[in-house]
What we know:
The chain is globular and about 60 Å long. About 50% of the residues lie in helices and about 15% in strands. The two termini are about 35 Å apart. By secondary structure, it is of the alpha/beta class. α4 links the parallel β4 and β5. The chain has a 6-stranded mixed β-sheet, with helices on both faces. Strands 4-5 form a two-stranded parallel sheet. It has a single domain, classed as Glycerol-3-phosphate (1)-acyltransferase, CATH 3.40.1130.
Amino acid sequence: MLRFLPAPILFFLSGLLLAINTAMWSILIIVGGIVKLLLPIKPIQIALSKLMDKLMWCWVCCNGGILKLTSNIEWDIQGLDNLDKESWYLIICNHVSGFDIAAQTYALRNNIPMLKFFLKKELLYVPLMGLGCWALNMPFMNRTSPAKLKKNPALRGKDFETTKRSCEKFKNLPTSIMNYCEGSRVTPEKQKRQNSPYKHLLRPKAGGAAFAISAMGEQFSHVLNMTLVYPDAEKDVLKTAMSGRLKKVIIRIETLPVPEVDHVKYVSDSEYRVEFQRWLNGIWEKKDNQIEQLLNPHK
């Protein structure tokens, strides 16, 4: 509707509307979180959690409405068949840009429970959004570097306990947990620094997925391997989308069985961790090839 406007004006309007939308729904979700904190009665907390997930769904739908107002995006999505809003899922996905969350939540909003994200603890202090994520029971994680883990292996057990406490809140309500295994958005600089063996990806980190599976493995119905591609986007995908210039979003979803993870072995046995990492590396190798084919379909 507004796509005739110049890109800088679309960028300003998108930013303003998205900020208003996020603030409005965040405030309502935070109020629900405070009420839930003051009324620690299980049936009430479950009912409030369902209501707050519905408020998040409203936020997602409004984001989609803003995108339709300012852009004309083609959504190419495959793999939504047989998904269920009453099931529990662990989703592993590549991380491309700041637009990823908006794209993923919008694409999946009517097919699976609203997404919960593993977030860096620093994001808790982002005005309104941080408290909104807290109210939605999203797990805030301390990033423990491999060097610190090597120096103090006990920290690995602490990471598991943090994940377990967070996941306990999801056992009474169907939930989809998103884990960006790469840990951060992919850039050529990060790929070079990591000496990444992949053309389009960073090396995956197995800890978050392993801890989530060990904490909730019996409840997860499947692992969803999601691949996200913006075939025509400029370097800054979020800016491209907000300026009305993003033309296409490609999402591929592969349904995988949930592997077994023994948290005691994972924490204490390095060979056991290596086996799980091999499983994840195999998925990432296929994902890298899939992205190459999606970006260059005639190659």
